[in-house]
């Protein structure tokens, strides 16, 4: 018996019976023009030192011009010892702010809001990429001991690593906000 070949009409898609994803969305003081989000995807279009390139600016700007209401940059490392990929975006120092501003301006010019996924690779960071020994909280049964925690540790947590990483994430968030 032949299958029914009628197109599926999804009421949540623009042009469907409803307007779900095409409707604006208000989240507190933020208003998105629709409900399409370009999620953070690893492109590795940055310089080896983590600086923004024109290629990456154009890549994200195309997503905004294409209709996404919110465009995220890829996972951006907040500390050099948390870098996991060779051409990963960095938000680890103030020198990165002009590049982040270029990304934000290009995305806003396309009509979208800009976001950054803050990241520290922890035990998945690669020393061959960052030049640092990967650091993370002490291993648990779920995570084998592949890293060196150089601080006073207690079961399930490395207080020194956690504090340093928390401070680095806060500083990176302030950089991304500028």
For the structure shown, list the relevant keywords.
single chain, 178 residues, alpha/beta, TIM Barrel, 3-stranded parallel sheet, two-stranded antiparallel ribbon, 4 helices, 7 strands
Give the arrangement of secondary structure elements.
Layout: E1 25-27, E2 30-32, E3 37-38, H1 54-65, E4 70-77, H2 97-109, E5 113-119, H3 127-130, E6 153-154, E7 157-158, H4 159-177
Parallel strand pairs: 3-4, 4-5
Antiparallel strand pairs: 1-2, 6-7
Helix pairs in contact: 1-2
Task: Describe the model.
Helix 1 (54-65) runs parallel beside helix 2 (97-109). The radius of gyration is 20 Å and the shape is globular. It has one domain (35-177): TIM Barrel. It has a three-stranded parallel sheet. The chain has helices at residues 54-65, 97-109, 127-130, 159-177, and strands at 25-27, 30-32, 37-38, 70-77, 113-119, 153-154, 157-158. By secondary structure, the chain is of the alpha/beta class.
The radius of gyration over CA amounts to 20 Å
Mean pLDDT: 83
Main beta-sheet strand count, sense and barrel state:
3 strands, parallel
The number of domains is 1
The ordered H/E elements are EEEHEHEHEEH
What is the tally of helical segments? 4
Give me the CATH superfamily: Aldolase class I
CATH class: Alpha Beta
Helix percent band:
25-40%
- Shape-level CATH architecture: Alpha-Beta Barrel
Which residues form runs of ≥5 with pLDDT under 50? 146-157
| Percent range for β-strand residues | 15-25%
Q: How many individual β-strands?
A: 7
3D shape: globular
Distance between the termini: 61 Å
Q: Could you say what the CATH topology is called?
A: TIM Barrel
Spatial order of strands in the largest sheet:
3-4-5
Estimated structural class? alpha/beta
């Amino acid at each position: 018996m032949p299958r029914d070949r009628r197109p599926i009409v999804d009421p949540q898609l623009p042009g469907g019976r409803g307007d779900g994803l095409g409707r604006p969305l208000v989240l507190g003081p933020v208003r998105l023009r629709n409900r399409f989000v370009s999620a953070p995807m690893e492109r590795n279009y940055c310089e080896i030192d983590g600086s923004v390139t024109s290629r990456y600016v154009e890549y994200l700007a195309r997503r905004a011009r294409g209709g996404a209401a919110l465009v995220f940059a890829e996972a951006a490392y907040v500390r050099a010892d948390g870098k996991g990929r060779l051409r990963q975006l960095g938000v680890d120092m103030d020198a990165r702010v002009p590049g982040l501003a270029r990304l934000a301006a290009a995305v806003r010019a396309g009509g979208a809001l800009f976001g950054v996924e803050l990241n520290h690779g922890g035990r998945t960071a690669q020393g061959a990429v960052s030049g640092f020994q990967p650091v993370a909280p002490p291993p648990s049964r779920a995570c084998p001991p592949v890293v060196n925690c150089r601080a006073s540790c207690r079961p399930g947590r490395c207080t020194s690593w956690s504090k340093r990483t928390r401070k680095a994430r806060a500083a990176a968030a302030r950089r991304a906000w500028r």
